C-alpha cells in the first residue's frame, strides 16, 4: 500500500493554532496545483479500563488508543504505547468493548479536512477537534506517495517533496511549521513495507505531540 507521513503543526512559542492557519495551509496546497478531491476523517479515542476490583488493576493496560482510519473502514486499530503494541481488529471490536464494559471511552478526537491530489502525491490537511466541539486542538497533514510502499526507498522523494512544501509555506510567514516525527516502527514489530498499522502508530505519535504542545501552553499561562 502507498506510504505516508503524518505531520503535525508545531506553533511558535507563545502562539496557538487557529482556523486562519488552516485556511492559509489549504490555500498553499492549491497554489502548488493541488486538486481538491473531497473530505476525509480519522478518529482517535482514548480508552481507560473499567476495573471493578482494584487487585486486578495490574492485569489491564492503564490506557490505550483506538484509531479509525478512512482508508480501512472495516478495521479498527488499537495501540498500547507503553508496551509498543499495535493491533488490527475488525471494526466491530468497538461494540464488543462497549457490551463487555471492560474499557470506557474517555475522549475522542476527530481529524478532518480536505484531500488533494498533487501528481504522485496525495495530501490531506485537517483540523483536530474533540467530538461534538469546534474547539480547535491542532492541525495535521498526511503526505502520501502513491507509487512506493517501501519506507526506505521513498525517503529521499518524501524529503524532497517536504523541502518544496516548506519553501512554499514559508512565503506565508505563518507562526509555526509542520513537523514530521517518525516513530521507531521496529519497536512495534513493523517492517519496511508500509501498512495501515504504520499509519495508526504515526497518529498515536502525533497525538502525544499535540498533548505535549497543549500542556506547554497551559504551563506558560
UniProtKB/TrEMBL annotation:
GO terms for biological process: regulation of transcription by RNA polymerase II. Keywords: Activator, Nucleus, Transcription, Transcription regulation. Pfam families: Med20 (PF08612). The keyword Cytoplasm does not apply. One of its GO terms (molecular function) is transcription coactivator activity. It is found in: Nucleus. GO terms for cellular component: mediator complex. Its main location: nucleus. The keyword Transcription applies. Component of the Mediator complex, a coactivator involved in the regulated transcription of nearly all RNA polymerase II-dependent genes. Mediator functions as a bridge to convey information from gene-specific regulatory proteins to the basal RNA polymerase II transcription machinery. Mediator is recruited to promoters by direct interactions with regulatory proteins and serves as a scaffold for the assembly of a functional preinitiation complex with RNA polymerase II and the general transcription factors. Component of the Mediator complex. Belongs to the Mediator complex subunit 20 family. This is Mediator of RNA polymerase II transcription subunit 20. It comes from Prunus avium (Cherry). The lineage of its organism: Eukaryota, Viridiplantae, Streptophyta, Embryophyta, Tracheophyta.
Amino acid at each position: 500500500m502507498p506510504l505516508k507521513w503524518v505531520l503535525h503543526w508545531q506553533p511558535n512559542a507563545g502562539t496557538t493554532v487557529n482556523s486562519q492557519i488552516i485556511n492559509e495551509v489549504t490555500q498553499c496546497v492549491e497554489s502548488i496545483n493541488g486538486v481538491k478531491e473531497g473530505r476525509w476523517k480519522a478518529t482517535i479515542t482514548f480508552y481507560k479500563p473499567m476495573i471493578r476490583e482494584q487487585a486486578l488493576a495490574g492485569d489491564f493496560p492503564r490506557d490505550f488508543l483506538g484509531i479509525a482510519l478512512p482508508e480501512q473502514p472495516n478495521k479498527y486499530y488499537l495501540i498500547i504505547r507503553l508496551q509498543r503494541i499495535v493491533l488490527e481488529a475488525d471494526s466491530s471490536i468497538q461494540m464488543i468493548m462497549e457490551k463487555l464494559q471492560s474499557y470506557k471511552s474517555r475522549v475522542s478526537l476527530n481529524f478532518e479536512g480536505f484531500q488533494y491530489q498533487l501528481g504522485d502525491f496525495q495530501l490531506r490537511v485537517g483540523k483536530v477537534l474533540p467530538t461534538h466541539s469546534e474547539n480547535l486542538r491542532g492541525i495535521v497533514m498526511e503526505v502520501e506517495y502513491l507509487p512506493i510502499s517501501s519506507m526506505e526507498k521513498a525517503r529521499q522523494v518524501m524529503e524532497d517533496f517536504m523541502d518544496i512544501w516548506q519553501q512554499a509555506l514559508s512565503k506565508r510567514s505563518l507562526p509555526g511549521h509542520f513537523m514530521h516525527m517518525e516513530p521507531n516502527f521496529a519497536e512495534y514489530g513493523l517492517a519496511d513495507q508500509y501498512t495501515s498499522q504504520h499509519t495508526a502508530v504515526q497518529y498515536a505519535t502525533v497525538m502525544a505531540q499535540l498533548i505535549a504542545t497543549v500542556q506547554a501552553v497551559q504551563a506558560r499561562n
